[in-house]
Amino acid sequence: MISYKKIFDKAAQEGLEALELYVSENSNFSFSLFRGELDSYSISDSASVEARGISDGKIGYATSEKFDSTTPEYLVSHIKQNAALTSSDDPGLIFRGSEKYRRKNVFSKKLHEAGPDEKIRLMKDFYSAVTKKSEKIQEVEISYEESEEAVTLTNSYGLKLSSKVNYAVVFAQAVATDETGETKSGMVFRILSDLADFDAEETASKLVDDTIRQFGSGPCDSGKYKCVFAGNAFASLLAPFLRNLSSDEVQKNSSLLAGKLGEKVTSSRLTVFEKPLEKNMSFRYFDDEGVATSNKTLIRNGVLQTYLYNLTTAAKENRESTGNGYKAGGSAIGVGLRNVFVKPGSLSEEGLFEKAGSGVYITSVSGLHAGMNAQSGNFSLIAQGFMIRDGKLAEPLSLITAAGNLFDMFNQITAVGNNVEVRMNGFYTPSVLVKKISISGK
Amino acid sequence: MITKSTAIEVLNEALATGADFAEIYLEEDDQTTIRMDNGKVESCDDKLTRGAGIRLLKDLRSVYGYTNNITRAGLLRLAKDLSASFDGKRLLTVDSITKVRQGKKHLPKIKYSEFPREELIGMLKSSSDACLAYDKKIVRCEISFAYNYKTVEIFNSTGKQFGDVHSRGRYIVTATARDEKGIETFHSRPGAQKGMEFFLEEVDMNEEAKNAAKSAITLLGAKECPSGKMTVIIGNGFGGVIFHEACGHSLEASSVSKGLSVFSGKKGEKIASDIVSAVDDGTIEGAWGSGNIDDEGNPTARNMLITNGVLTSYLVDSFNGRRMNEPGNGACRRESYKYEPTSRMSNTFILNGKSTPEEIIANTEYGLYAKDMGGGSVNPATGEFNFAVNEGYIVENGKISYPVKGATLIGSGKEVLLNIDMVGNDLLRAQGMCGAASGSIPADVGEPTIRVQNMTVGGRGGTVK
Fold first, then answer.
1. Hey, CA dihedral for A269, A273, A279, A282, is it positive or negative?
2. Which domain covers residue B89, as residue numbers?
3. Co-location of A279 and A322 in the same domain
């Protein structure tokens, strides 16, 4: 790998006031099955060092995946050059360390030690389970992707933190065709830290049921409906809503939640936590600036409890970072979240349908990168789901859009379910009932 | 990045257990990103990525791996690890490597690395000022300017060596407008596979920034778009995302070859209205999605996808082509060495028709004019797509009447292509990043102004009857 010392020595020699190295080392193992046979197989390892340094009070960045004798010179000279070009009023900050860190071991030895043959066998069993469920299933694609991610953050003040996680994601897609030639597709994913957690039968049933039950789907009449969002669909709306808690957005005039601290910003049914210290694949005891993370309440019974800060935005308000400084595509530090939990309510999902009486049940929304504007809160997204009639699920829906405004919609949550779905990016959300959503269909 | 003799050694190591094809893809990419917020440089970031991907094929199986360690020892280890997933006897040996000569059409005239950064930052600042000065309601202007210089080398077991260079630059400006009623944002994002000359001669960043501000202000005053089935006029340029999503992805061999696409087995059949012809062209000089070769070494091509409504070609990479009995047609791409390459689009667009855009609007009694589109997505199995309208207007009695916001267009690729009833003569391409199995890659979308009958529009402004 790489000698940190040589880079720190070079930085000192070139007069940098401080230097931080953020080193990521990843290895991946993945394969996919098509028609039950192995069709692709992949192994990889990669590493990068992202360096941030202070030169004349300003911060500069450089990243390298090339590790040889030229690396220290490359990093340090680019940091100096880039710092000189920066004109931001924000102070450049490298962190000296938090008083206390809550380290936990989340690395699964069992997963690491299991051989590839065992993993392939498990997925082949899963494939058989899927094809046995229904004759309508035409094609099944299954992929297994295992990652090990190690991060080391070290700086010239002597701080050194590291964390290592591993997990596997099983992803399957099924395509089914019925007697009339109609085609439907469904997908399912599972996150594992131990192969023993994978229930092939249960996952196969979920995949096949979700695919088959879409047959005969079509749009409903356009109009306003009561709406139950399944946990995953709700998470798709919650994530952009929470972006407005970023102190950076607030300070830069781009958040409609600015000035709302301690005020009611959502329905009182809603309580949201961030739990970076929860032991799972998104666990991290330090953020990307080295600040200790902590579990916290973001919204309690609809009342906004805190904005999220990194070192820079905190310094502007003369307060402490909340440990939410994360890199956002590049070396620069933005504001981010890990492990969002919504407090479950008392009704089951069936209870929510009953409470709605009539309306729509949205199982998934897509097109978020285009159809969602987190700042204005306006969204218009393609959706899939079912009609709710007489308090029960009725015919399947497709080719509809669900449109609304996040800030209005979060105030119109009338019930929160007691079921919780896990989303790939660390959201743990129950289903919710919303008073009114615009559905466009026929 | 490596010598021919190392390449031969690594390929032979990879072939030891019976693979029928082996390939080494090496890449070094020097990237720079400058971010500006309200005229201040927030960050300047340089990133040097370097690595290699090794791919082995045996019949219908592929094996892929990558590493940053591109020393002889590192590559041999990776080749050995990968070959362990086959257990046959060696089928072939590579004795020599010949370098394939090809054109160098897309080289920058003014290299970004040789253009003074201070001067570039001055230009960004001036565009930021133009954006903020446009109107008091513009409260924020964010700019990102990113460029790279990427060198690629490919060696494969047919004894060939290929090389290419890609240098791209892109300017993205986001204007935020705010009034007592709400916040709206609008982006403009021109880019090209050219050097700094593109921003000196072809694109005026100040104009781009002012236009973004103007559109954000328009959105502040826009009504919510009504919903329902209506006639939709889709503007030229980024409007071509409709074709990209509704049809392009479903023509990629990765889904076609496995019967996972709505267009599987449809070659020679009519899939679009007679007035629609469309192409994927990776050869256009300096275009965002072009290359001299694709990412497995085949020369890029101009592939006619649809000719007068009839499906004439798929986008094929050589691996998925094995299932289809078709050779690769220059459409195999990847984001970087970290991705196994597969069939992808390059610059994909609908060709010019006969109507003028004015005629199309004048002939529309009531409908939505989607002047600028956001991105979208598609499910290749069902062909169902969705995309967002960034800037839209209601057309009444043949005239543009008032601006609307919050519209989404949805439909299925099969239907929308057949429902195109007018095609304009004002073809324009626009730049996007396309995400799929082999990563996020630069791709142009494009079209002239087109009109689609009976499209589903989602919005919150009541129902159209």
1. positive
2. 4-220
3. yes
